Known about the structure:
With 244 residues, the chain is of the alpha/beta class. The protein has one domain: Acetylglutamate kinase-like (Carbamate kinase), CATH 3.40.1160.10. It has helices spanning 3-7, 32-46, 64-69, 74-98, 120-128, 146-157, 190-195, 203-211, 226-231, and strands spanning 12-17, 51-56, 103-107, 116-117, 132-136, 161-166, 171-172, 184-185, 187-189, 216-220, 238-241. A 9-stranded mixed sheet has the order 4-3-5-2-1-6-10-11-9, with helices on both faces. Residues 1-5 have low confidence and may be disordered.
Amino acid sequence: MTEEKQTNKYNRILLKLSGEALAEPGGFGISPAQARHIAQLVKSVNETGVDVAIVIGAGNIWRGATGENTGMDRATADYMGMLATMINALALMDALEQIDVITRVMSAIEMRTVAEPYIRRRAMRHLEKGRVVIFGGGTGNPYFSTDTAAALRATEIGADVVIKATKVDGIYDRDPKIHQNAIRFDRLTHLEAISQRLNVMDSTAISLCMDNNMPILVLDLWQPGSLLAAIRGEAVGTLVTLEG
């Protein structure tokens, strides 16, 4: 065990990224520059000895709700979203491997030519070997978001925390981009996040974290040094725990 790892608050994290984190300006498509930037952030954490797993959404390509709202069958629309997460997962894997970070993509939907099938014990083994693991395909089931996939995978792999990476520096009582007097929370309970409808993650994901005593840390991924500071246990973003 390295000295750096002994000073970290978290030894294994599940990083939840939105699809928009990879997007071109305007929120659509994939920007190689954005992918490289995220890869550098992940590498800096991985180099401290922290096990890093990632779940990424697909909002930059497709949202199941978009299809449903236009009359598409909900399950079909959700499966399309799951496939879109695999495009993002492969893009991020490539960006990581370009900077010599050994990465594995595991899919909840079997597609052996591009990714390993998700097997919990195999995922654990990859993490133990210091590899970054990207979980694609959501949960493999329609009607569940990638937030819920993040909560589920974090619980399965024994992560210490789910880090929800956003473009806002925490959780507010209202949208800070619209309301200048919005109040930021330093700490919350899972129950408060659900009852106050604070849009941290969807209620299914938060409930799963609450039932398994899984902390959620919401931070601004684009604020320089925020991710590493969070790993060290510094006061960054908003921490959601069982006791608050």
